[in-house]
Amino acid sequence: MTEGHHSGKYDEGRHAPRWIIFLLDLVLSITSMGIAYLLRFNMSIPAEWSAKFSLVFPLVLIVRGTAFMIFRTFAGLIRYTSSRDSARIMYVVAAGTGVLAAINLLAFTVTGGTFIFPMSVLMTDFLILLFILTALRMLMKNTYYDLFNKNDDRKGVIIYGTDQSGLVVKHTLEREMGRSFRVISFMDEKDHIAGKKIEGVSVRDVRSLREFLHNTHAHSLIFSKQPPSPERKIEIADTCLDFDMKILSVPYISNWISSRLAFNQIKSLHIDDLLERTPVPVNDGRITSLISGKVVLVTGAAGSIGSEIVRQVLAYNPETLILVDQAETPLYEMEIMLAEKADPNRFRIVTGNVADSARMTDLFRNYRPHTVFHAAAYKHIPMMENNPAEALRTNICATWLLAQLASDHGCSRFIFVSTDKAVNPANVAGASKRIAELCLLNIQGRSDTGFSIVRFGNVLGSNGSVIPRFRKQIEKGGPVTITHPEATRYFMTSTIAAQLILEAGAMSKGGEIFIFEMGPSIRIYDLARKMIKLGGMRPGQDIEIKFTGLRAGEKINEEIMYTHEYTEPTDNPKISLVLDKRNAGNNIEEKISALADLLPENDNEKILAAIKTILPGFQAGVMAMAIEHNQKT
Asked: Whose CA is closest to 253, among 342, 161, 189?
């Protein structure tokens, strides 16, 4: 939102001068006092009291006028009267009545028993004046909306939420941006308040949002509270985007400045907010038994998933948490973050390559971890298509090494973070992760360590993923590049992914593959269009969308299971157990050892050929095939 420019005619023509409001309040004060006398004496005021009116009414004018001046009740725009203004009026009237009562008591003391006015009149006047001043402002406010809103050229805003936060958003808009924006409707799920008004603004059932937008032009919708489910939030946002509206949200009240919402804290909604899924409670007791008081090792601890695993593991009070990564700067940032939240003696920062046998052997010998979360991996498809030896080194050999060390040093659980790209892999990265899965299934047959595998799709906002790339392209003015118009991917947040990884690891007994329920796959083209619209721009007009063709090794649609696999439910509806009809992990140790033996030669042609012997259906990507061709020629 940006503040619009309006003429002086708008400013002066739509609100009364302050001196008129001040004089009107004084007239109402005299009127209220007169009504109080009439009520007190049953419409017939005795002469002994009416004779004092020449003192009473000037005194009322002076006291009430001074109170109005001090509290500046005349300074606010009547059309923006809020509950806060009503409270201020109550304080002003109470203060004035208190001063009048004090003067009255003083007169009684000085004169030896004579009041200026009856005390009961003061109490009645307090109630009448409070009602009149508040009711008049609300009447003027509603009259203003009825007369002028139809021709108001300010941008219309819809507020989702009718609780206190919704009113705060309305007051913030009126206070800071009243010249540019006006609230045209509240929306909510509460049936019992639909059709009513809050501070002169109609309340509508959010299910009628599309119909309302067909008949009313709105500039934006602000979420003042979270809808009852992520699915409802997506539905509301999609409807707004269909009408080219801006969608904004309010931060949690804990993030307000001095417990007060400022306009610049109302931010545009991000695509991440619309890809969240409904969280499912996990078995905290089960996870606690896996982690609490234990030594826990997390590899790839500075990455998107690894760092979130670290945060969540820390909440379950491990004896020692070991963070391993070769990315020095992100790991250092993790160390700073942890030092602010936990006892430094509870975690160890280890910079090193998980494929370094000596380094990892020393690590297991010194710390003897009870639980290992292995998230370290190379994942970018084009990079691994060009560098299959590195995929072999890190994704396969390092996993084999860590699994052997875990088994040799009595580790209880080893949880391997895999990917949907490991299913029917079309690229080196996916193939290497599938072979790593087979490594663990093979070792499980001769180890007391419980090895388990978790498969899921893309993590929202992870480094190098599609969402950060689109965001940068949009910020530069486009174009947004998409590989294929029908390409789809699965997405989930790092928070939920890490939560389910811990849950799966805790429920595992060894030798399992778990998959997560990630909702429907999302078309990347639709994702790009939605991101452009959320930025307040129009796809194809303000931001161009270009199709570049599938990159080497990319598939149009990702899969989560092989055809020879089937699932069984677990006690967590977000996690399923994958069972393999072929026992794919058996009898492959020699092939994997032969593949690992190729690493010193760094011969990509031989590496690709060896991968195909382990995964007969695998076809190397275009870049990998080009490597083979170049080496042959």
From this structure: 161
Q: 458-459 and 565-569: which strand pairing?
A: unpaired
Q: What is the pTM of this model?
A: 0.71
Q: Which helix (H) or strand (E) holds 233?
A: helix 230-242
CATH class, range 154-269:
alpha beta
Residue owning tokens 């789809």: 488
- Give the residue carrying structure tokens 């994704």: 395
pLDDT of residue 48: 86
Antiparallel, parallel or unpaired: β 155-160 and 512-516: unpaired
Structure tokens belonging to residue 294: 């234990």
pLDDT score of 196 more than 70: yes
Token pair, residue 290, equals 């896996």
CA distance 544 to 546: 6
Query: Would you list the domain boundaries of the chain?
Result: 8-147, 154-269, 284-626
> Identical fold at 154-269 and 284-626?
yes
Indicate the DSSP class of residue 355.
Answer: T
Tokens of 242: 């269909």
Length of the chain: 633
CATH superfamily of 284-626: NAD(P)-binding Rossmann-like Domain (3.40.50.720)
Burial 479-494 (b: 16+ CB within 10 A, else e): ebebbbeebbbbbbbb
Q: Measure Cα distances from 324 to 349, 352, 374 in Å.
A: 6, 7, 10
**Whole-angstrom distance, CA of residue 489 vs CA of residue 158:** 32
- Residue keyed to tokens 């174009």: 479
Q: Which of 41-45, 565-569, 618-622 is predicted with the least confidence, judged by mean pLDDT?
A: 618-622
The pLDDT tens digits of the residues spanning 311-354 come to 999 999 999 999 999 999 999 999 998 888 888 888 999 999 99
Q: Omega before 479 cis (within 30°)?
A: yes
Q: Which amino acid type is present at position 250?
A: V
With CA atoms as reference, report the closest residue to 78 among 132, 17, 23, 147: 17
